[in-house]
Amino acid sequence: MSLSVTTLIRGRFVLTSSDAGMLRDAAVLVDGVAIREVGAWDDLRARHPSVAVVGDGTGIVLPGLVNTHGHFSEGLITGMGETLTLLEWIQRLIVPVAPHLTREMARVGTLLKGAEMIASGVTAVNDLFVCSPRPHDPVTPGVVDGLERLGLRGEVAFGASDLADPRPVEEILAEHDALAAAAAGSRRCRFRLGIATVLAQSDALFAASVRRTHDEGWRVHTHFHEVREEVVASRQAHGLTTIAYAARSGLLDAEVLGAHCIWLTDADIELLAEHGVRVAHNPVANMILGSGVCPVRRLQAAGIPVGIGTDGPASNDGQDMLEAMKTAALLQKVSNLDPTAMTAPEVLRMATLDGARALGLDDVTGSLEVGKDADVVLLDGRSPALAIIHDPYQAVLYCTNGREVSDVWVQGERVLEAGRLTRVDIDAVVDEARELAEELVSAAGLRDAPHASHLVGRPGAGRAATAGAGA
After folding, report:
1. Bond prior to 317 in cis (omega within 30° of 0)
2. Kind and range of the H or E run holding 464
3. Could you give the maximum distance between any two Cα atoms of the chain, in Å?
4. 378 exposure class (CB count in 10 Å sphere: 0-12, 13-18, 19+)
5. Which of 141, 231, 240, 400 has its CA 20 to 30 A from that of 108?
6. C-alpha dist (Å) from residue 313 to 70, 317, 416, 424, 468
7. Where are the domains of the chain?
8. Per CATH, the architecture of 65-358 is what?
9. What class has domain 7-63+368-421?
10. With bands split at pLDDT 50, 70 and 90, how would you rate the model's confidence at 463?
11. Hey, is 36 helix, strand or coil?
């Protein structure tokens, strides 16, 4: 286990995501859990001649990447159903799996996919775990178990719903409480109340969810307006869009992170801005499921913080944050028929400081600034992809992937060293994950269903079939 030590992290370029912008031949001084200095290499080395150095001056130093939306509940069911729409995917894959997830599966799925995130430079993740509650054996604390073992910073939530899988409201609230307690006892996790989607909850559960956010001061993680069908169903049920109904019901009075936010009216955007809602853009999953394109520019113009998310391992299906960043830029360019629609520096800021703002963490992470936690990534300048760096922002966005991520620090702790995890035996995790994945797909009736055409249908009822759990 690699603990926090005093280190100079050196790069040919340091991209700070702060007002300092880009620094050439520079370094970051990490002392304990925090960043103590950021500046020119020659100056820092002269004043700290005996401090250990990581980086040979050829690579790129970044703030840790902030993954603003994902589902560790999908960690053991990757690579299935790629020709399904969102609603088909929920009914045929997520609904059958949810009742069979266990705390051990949550832990191992988090280890497996969290490792993949770290290898792409992620230091903070916002998770929404979708499962059936188990009053006497809670499932979701397994996410905290996994994040603690990896050393990742995590926002954790239980994606509660009860229309597709009716349960007493008390059982669902008990799962929230168990996860909140686990997060409170961890080093780097914080709890959010999760709502799979507003339309996936009964009136009783939704009212109880809103009440708990007010009573406990809990922040919220949910999905908003991912597909057109959700908006149509909400208008049919309530005479309002989901966002308008959430505002009228008091949900938006809490601090809310809404994933996707694709099918928005101008009035919806005004409500999001008025209530300080933050948005997680998930371009890869939106493209795989054919859901649509998030109006990122309209949201940003309204002053709404927009971060980037990988989304879940069964809707992306990878957990490479660098891939999600590249796709975010390309999707905006092609959908707007404009190569200037989103630039590399803008995307890096979305994946760092704006992502931290979206999670309410920008006071401690998201940029390389003195006093902030030392969440830092070093990209290997000896890699063929970074042998030539004309523009470091474009190099990060378009040239790199996980192969270039050499070292990662979270709160000054080196959780990835020379491409190897320091806190986890990944070979052992892979072995555990394979065994548990077989157990899970067998229990869910999906063992022989790798392709969408073979997935066993699970017809839903009423609003549950329309809204589902969200991706």
Report:
1. yes
2. helix 463-467
3. 69
4. buried
5. 400
6. 8, 4, 21, 20, 17
7. 7-63+368-421, 65-358
8. Alpha-Beta Barrel (3.20)
9. mainly beta
10. very low
11. strand
